[in-house]
C-alpha cells in the first residue's frame, strides 16, 4: 500500500495502475486510449466523479438505493450497523449471522453457530473488526472510490439454501447485462463459470477453476437480469451481485472495479470484445 501511495505521488494514479498491473498480473493496459473493458472501467475510475461509485459501493448506503429502485424485498434483513467493534454485542445476535465491513471486499465473518463463539473467539473477532475499520483499501489496489466510504460494520441475517448459494454476478455495461459470472463454492474449491444472458456458457476465463459439471440455469434468471439492469441504469459499468435462495432473490452488492478493475481472470480477446459495449465519457 505504501509503495502504491509513493508511486502515485511520482507518476500519478493512472500510470501507477498500469505499472502495478504489469508487475502483479503480467498484463498490459493502456488507460490513455482505453479499448478493452478493464481499461474503460479503470479510465472511468480515474477520470470521472466517483461520488456515486462511493455511495453505491458502501454496503450500508447502497441499501437505500436498492429500496428506492423498488427492490426493498430483496435486501437481506439488517441486524445492526456499528461504527466501532466494541458496539457489536454478540448476546443480542441470533444463532447464525454475517458481519461485513462496509468499505471493502474480503472483510466478512460468517457465523453458523453462535454457541461456538466462546470468549476467546469473541476477542479474536473483535480484533479482526478493529483491523477492518483501520484498513484503507483505496491505495492497496488503487480503487480510489473506496477512499470516501465511511468505515463501518454491518450485521445481516445468514441466508442459506439447500444445495448451496451460488453468487450470480451480473456485469452490466450502460444498463444492459452483458454476461454473468457464477461463483460456486464446493468444499475448498471455488469455481467460476461465465454465461451470456441466454445462459449459453462462454469459454472466456483463465487462471481459475471452471466447474466441468453443468451449472443449473436459475429459475428466476429473467427477473434477476431485469433487476440488475434497473440498478445499473445510466452507469457505464457496474457488476450487480445477486443470490437465489429457495426461489427468493437477494441483493448482494454493487461493484464498480471488480477484481481491482483489471479483470485478470478474463481472456484479453473477451475484454477487447466487451469493451465495445461499454461507452465512457471519453467517447
Runs in which pLDDT lies below 50 for 5 or more consecutive residues are none
Gross morphology: globular
The name of the CATH topology of the largest domain is: D-amino Acid Aminotransferase, Chain A, domain 1
Helix-strand string: HHHHHEEEHHEEEEEHEEH
Number of strands: 10
Radius of gyration: 19 Å
Spatial strand arrangement across the major sheet: 8-7-6-5-9-10
Approximately how much beta-strand content do the residues carry?
Answer: 15-25%
Mean pLDDT: 94
Distance N to C terminus: 32 Å
Q: Helix/strand/pairing class, anyone?
A: alpha+beta
Question: Biggest β-sheet: count, sense, barrel?
Answer: 6 strands, antiparallel
CATH architecture of the largest domain: 2-Layer Sandwich
Number of domains: 3
In helices, the fraction of residues equals 25-40%
Pfam families: ATPgrasp_TupA
InterPro entries: ATPgrasp_TupA
Question: Which characteristics define this entry?
Answer:
globular, alpha+beta, 283 residues, ATPgrasp_TupA, six-stranded antiparallel sheet, D-amino Acid Aminotransferase, Chain A, domain 1, four-stranded antiparallel sheet
Brief description of this entry?
With 283 residues, this protein is of the alpha+beta class. The chain is built from nine helices and ten strands. It folds into three domains: 1-25, no CATH class; 31-74 and 161-277, 2-Layer Sandwich (D-amino Acid Aminotransferase, Chain A, domain 1); 78-157, no CATH class.
